[in-house]
Design goal:
With 479 residues, this protein is mainly alpha-helical. The chain contains 18 helices and six strands. The strands form two sheets. A three-stranded mixed beta sheet has the order 1-2-3, with helices on both faces. A three-stranded mixed beta sheet has the order 4-5-6, with helices on one face. α4 packs across α7 and α6 runs antiparallel to α7.
Length: 479
């Protein structure tokens, strides 16, 4: 007769592997088991009692919305999180998911009614705040809630999951799940109030869609968990009605989700285009390719109109000639996401980029900005350019004209360690010939700069000043 130890020795390797996988399956099933500690009746009572938006809940909502609006206005994530700690928005949305899950139409009507009241209270509070605030500008925290995507929906899904799982326990703890749900709901609702108060309807619509998208995902997650945990149905529902309900939920889900998927695609496309624009600027006008570029790009903006997109670069240093513009345009179009974009340069004697941005924020029709840029780029006729060239030559020959304010401003942008710079004309003679004028630049570097760096930068500065000022010779004196 075989002993147990002999039986274990005689077991085959496949049998041992099957036992291992079975043990892992049992352990994992126990790990994710939601039945332990589940309180179905208590959950239904808690959600039904907590879904009404009146009395203390209404006052808590007003306070939390005003605190969240302050956080958005001040661009303070800490203040926004503080508002979420007291937000009572969780119960009405969980009530919607519960009512659909247990087929309770009366509860659904009450939950939707109080959810609508909560929206009205929140919008009225945030609109009033942003109508009275002395700030009221678009902060990064506000901007982050104006492009709803599927990734934002994931926050709502996991927030709703935390909310319904915590509420369904015997030892309930609603504070932290409430914060998770408020994360997805409160800031978008406050941004909607900001958009309405300032007449920015695109921001208002996008943020309210984000709020509605997140609310739907929270309610949907609640419905799925309620069905997974087999909560008791209030009334019998036959198979045909069950299938019809599933199809309606699926269709409604697609209608809600598809716009966010499209927005996500546009956001990813925009980020790829921004990355390629920055790579183009880095390789063509900064130090990646040429360690000592004579022309630098210090800023840029993108002007998008119905018919075209224009990339406008603010340059300092040696001007870009007309015959070089086409070469830069071809290099720009070598990037996959920039092929339909037109390139424009704003140089030292042209319209400043901040002026373009001011026009861009004040005009609704961006085509007007594009036309103004085209007018600005073509404002000089060939005759005016020739006159300007001749005038510069005359100034150079007679007075040694140097556009000192422009040259010094650009020199400071290219050489940030410059502390002071001066320009003058020195009378010089060798006592054998007549005295002559020599252009002289006096420069002072910031303290702490090493001698080899000063020697290197002074050579670069001399080349730059000769090219920019049009002088054949000049003296550079450090003091």
């Amino acid at each position: 007769m075989e002993t147990p130890s002999n039986k274990q020795k005689n077991r085959s390797i496949p049998a041992l592997i099957r036992e291992l996988f079975e043990s892992i399956r049992i352990w994992f099933a126990d790990l994710i088991n939601l039945e332990e500690g589940l309180d179905r009746e208590g959950t239904i009572i808690a959600i039904k009692n907590g879904k009404r938006m009146r009395g203390a809940n209404a006052w808590l909502l007003i306070c939390s919305i005003l605190i969240a609006s302050l956080g958005l206005d001040l661009n303070s994530p800490a203040v926004i999180i503080g508002a979420m700690l007291i937000s009572p928005l969780m119960a009405p949305i969980l009530g919607v998911g519960l009512a659909v899950g247990i087929n309770d139409k009366d509860t659904l009507i009450i939950a939707l009614r109080h959810f609508g009241i909560a929206i009205l209270i929140a919008l009225a509070s945030s609109i009033l705040y942003f109508a009275l605030t002395p700030l009221g500008t678009i902060t990064p925290e506000i901007q982050a809630r104006t492009a709803p995507t599927l990734l934002d929906g994931l926050v709502a899904i996991f927030g709703g999951l935390a909310g319904i799982i915590s509420t369904s326990r015997r030892d309930k703890s609603n504070a932290l799940p409430g914060v998770a749900i408020a994360t997805a709901l409160m800031p978008p609702l406050c941004v909607t109030g900001f958009g309405v108060a300032n007449g920015m309807w695109t921001i208002a619509l996008n943020s309210f869609y984000l709020f509605f998208l997140n609310s739907f995902f929270i309610a949907l997650t609640t419905f799925l968990i309620i069905r997974l945990l087999k909560f008791p149905m209030r009334s019998y529902m036959d198979q045909q009605e069950a299938r019809r309900t599933r199809w309606l939920i699926t269709l409604f889900s697609l209608l809600i989700v598809l716009p966010s998927g499209r927005i996500l695609f546009e956001v990813l496309k925009e980020r790829q285009r921004t990355a390629q624009i920055e790579e183009f600027i880095r390789t063509q006008f900064n130090t990646d390719v040429d360690p000592n570029p004579l022309t630098r790009c210090i800023d840029y903006t993108l002007i998008e109109a119905d018919s075209s997109s224009q990339l406008v670069l603010q340059l300092v240093g040696q001007p870009i000639h007309e015959d070089s513009v086409q070469n830069y345009q071809k290099r720009l179009q070598s990037f996959p996401h920039l092929q339909d974009m037109q390139l424009n340069f704003l140089q030292s004697d042209q319209l400043e980029l901040k002026t373009v941005r001011a026009m861009q924020s004040q005009m609704d029709n961006l085509d007007q900005i594009a036309r103004k840029l085209e007018i600005n780029n073509n404002i000089r006729s060939q005759q005016e350019m020739q006159i300007d060239m001749l005038q510069r030559k005359v100034d150079s020959l007679q007075l040694g004209f140097v556009p000192f304010p422009e040259v010094t401003r650009e020199a400071k942008a290219v050489f940030p360690d410059l502390e002071r710079i001066g320009f003058g004309r020195l009378q010089e003679t060798d006592f054998e010939s007549a005295a002559s004028e020599v252009p002289i630049f006096l420069i002072k570097w910031k303290s702490g700069k090493r001698s080899w760096e000063i020697t290197r930068d002074e050579e670069r500065l001399r080349e730059y000043l000769q090219v920019r000022s049009g002088l054949d010779t000049l003296s550079l004196v450090r003091y």
